[in-house]
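Allow me, if you will, to draw on your knowledge of protein folds for a short while. The matter concerns a single protein, recorded as an amino acid sequence and a row of backbone structure tokens. Kindly check, if you would, that the fold set down in the tokens agrees with what the sequence suggests. You will find the record immediately after this paragraph.
***
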Amino acid sequence: MLVNLHVKNLALIEEAEVNFGPGLNILTGETGAGKSILLGSMQLILGGKIQKNMVRTNAPYALVELLFETEDEQTLRNLAELSVFPEDGQILLSRRITDGRSVSRINGETCTISQMKAAAACLLDIHGQHEHQSLLYRDKQLEILDAFASDKTRPLLEKVRTAFAAVKQCEKNLQELDIDEEQRSREISFLEYEIHEIEKAALVPGEDEELEKRYKKLSNSRRMMETLSSVHALTGSDRGAGEQTGQAVQELGHILQYDDELQPLSDLLMQADSLLSDFARELSSYMDDLVFDEEVFYETEKRLDLINDLKARFGKTIEEILEGRDRRSERLSALQDHASRVEKARRKLAEAEASYAEAAGLLSEERQKASRELILQVVESLQDLNFLDVRFDIRFDKKAPASNGTDEIEYLISVNPGEEIRPLGQIVSGGELSRIMLALKAILASRDQIGTLIFDEIDAGISGRTAQKVSVKLSQIAQTRQVLCITHLPQIAAMADRHFEIEKHGDEENGTATEVHLLTEEDTIRELARLLGTDDITDVAIRNAAEMRRSALEQKGR
């Protein structure tokens, strides 16, 4: 149930807070007072688009908050699937609009607009003029039938959707195998050539790194030899640092007997002499091995060119090249086994189509069973709404397989004696269409778990006794669901459990603003008198309104 609506800085509404109650909540007001703005604020929570000039002039932002309470187990399960969990049994949905952008929150936590829309759909259903016009579309009619029989159709519909997706995947797989023989032959030849080229190279992971090191060494061997020779001359025993260090050791040895403190210096110098000797030996050995082999250099360069060419075509590393070979081998096997693969894909498609046909058939049977029950209930409900000689039927046709089955249905109706039964769009007026949608809503309200229903434009094109019948139907729905209804008709307003007046006031200095007030019983009667079309609220008008209210309360009691 919607317990509180808080709106701030939205169009004409500076700030409004409405505490709704159970049963039938009626909202009335003069034309242009802001009823559509109040309804639009709720539409924002249901994911409505942000319109230009939506934020009140000179206001920094606009805010809409809806506070719900629910204890219904199915609703709680549906919300839990969306990761929405009530706090102390309450759920707060809010949307703040600043500079054409909005931030949505559920219980204070930021969420996407789609997440909030899904959560709101579990709690709130708004029925406006656009929706009852949608009743003319056959897809909407099928959607209503499925909602009516949801306990039976929901699991079957899920199976149909799964089976349909499987059919589409099988069709895609078969289409991918659709290749002409000449193209297949060319691709086989090309793959065989590429695979042979890679296998012929006999690649070994890591060999490219070793080859690059060898190539680098061989291609720079002359410069290395020249440099090493110079180093050998500078450090060797032939007039180099080695010879001079040896002489220094001898010279220092002559004076060691004169001072013991010279011994550590002598030891260090001897270590240096030994290190230079070792270095000279290692260097000579390295230089002896450093021989440029032109044939080795050529083979190394050739092998590197081959690997780099394969890298440019098949992968950045040897591992990627080998993986590419494996993929080509798999594709080659598939092409060589093409006929059997096509046959297998066709068998899978046939099996998927059979599974879909079976699921769609079961769904269609359940829909047709449900349609017979829905027809009876619609006729009964329409008679309650002053369709005294109504006939209603649902015609089933077959359509191409789709995710919702193979059924295409159309609602047929006759509202006058002797009139041929025809599709809705060919017969009913706007007022009649709104009553038909109300009848369907009344039927569905006993089956779904949505706690709050909002009706706008439900009184379009009706008056008199028909309006009285509509008010009774709304009151009946409000016995099991919270109902919010925006209306201009006194017959409907008289049925209110709680009556709110939407009022616009203002002046040039302070601007125009819309406010919402909960009416007392006395105020309700005065508002009914206004709705009855009385310019001057006379005692007679008050008595008429009071009698209408008394009659409505008696009707509610019955």
Notes: The radius of gyration is 44 Å. The CA atoms of residues 163 and 356 lie 5 Å apart. The mean pLDDT is 85.
